[in-house]
Known about the structure:
A hairpin with an 8-residue loop joins strand 1 and strand 2. The chain contains nine helices and two strands; from the N terminus they run H-E-E-H-H-H-H-H-H-H-H. The two termini are 41 Å apart. By secondary structure, the chain is mostly helical. The protein is extended, with a radius of gyration of 23 Å. The protein has helices spanning 2-12, 35-61, 69-72, 90-99, 105-113, 116-120, 125-132, 137-143, 149-161, and strands at 16-17, 26-27.
Amino acid sequence: xxxxxxxxxxxxxxxxxxxxxxxxxxxxxxxxxxxxxxxxxxxxxxxxxxxxxxxxxxxxxxxxxxxxxxxxxxxxxxxxxxxxxxxxxxxxxxxxxxxxxxxxxxxxxxxxxxxxxxxxxxxxxxxxxxxxxxxxxxxxxxxxxxxxxxxxxxxxxxxxxxxxxxxxxxxxxxxxxx
Length: 178
């Protein structure tokens, strides 16, 4: 209960600013209480919880704690670390590249042309993984191809619409139980 109360309190506390040694602690200006703001605070709390659990596990392994069940039961906030599913449009990507310092521009171009951009163009994960030098698709899927549900649905619709089995716009979701 103590760890859970601390975690909830941490997630509800405004972000702190770095302050000079001995100076009074300052918090970030009040921000709107939005879903995104709450997700970000929970994500920060989850990272701090991970560090705390690592320290407590070390103490347990070194015989400094009699049991480890108290913190093992504490779970991080769910879906706090989910990636933000927003992709730059082609126009936004061009503006970003044009705004970059010429020396930095090739790095930004390379970042924009790999991974997620290829996934949005329908390039198979195996091809993206090979182009990026990954041994298999798992890392590609985890780090470069967080596909939004709407993108997946649109891709499936476009792929099956041309088969001539159903009329375009006449696709429905089927729940099949076995």
